[in-house]
Design brief:
Length: 96
């Protein structure tokens, strides 16, 4: 059976991936966490996000098609997700 398709990136993440180097160049020594923060500020200030929203929508459509094929071929929406056992906490340790 084929692997479950990965979820598509959001419009913001597509944009941030393309803008990351420019943000680093304009802010030398910036920390990784600060890149995301600065990116968020720039994204909120953007007037025209249509290019990125269009790309994200195309990726989501492709993902939905891949998921339909995956499910049609016996895959489950929950494939690849690990279920918590009774008595386990978030980190997988047994609670006694």
């Amino acid at each position: 059976m084929a692997e479950k398709p990965k979820r598509p990136l959001s419009a913001y993440m597509l944009w941030l991936n393309s803008a990351r180097e420019q943000i680093k160049k304009e802010n030398p020594g910036i920390k990784v966490t600060e890149i995301a923060k600065k990116g968020g500020e720039l994204w909120r200030g953007m007037k025209d996000k249509s290019e990125w929203e269009y790309k994200a929508a195309k990726m989501k459509d492709e993902y939905n098609k891949q998921m339909q094929d995956f499910e049609r071929n016996g895959g489950s929406k929950d494939a690849g997700t690990k279920k918590k056992k009774d008595g386990e906490n978030l980190f997988g340790y047994r609670l006694e």
